[in-house]
Amino acid sequence: MLLTENDIATKALDICFNIHTRYGPGLFESVYEEIFCYEWNKTGIPFKRQQGIALVHETIKMDVGFRADVILDSKVILELKSIEALADIHYKQVLTYLKLTHLKLALLVNINVVLLKNGIKRVANKL
Question: Model pTM?
Answer without folding.
Answer: 0.93
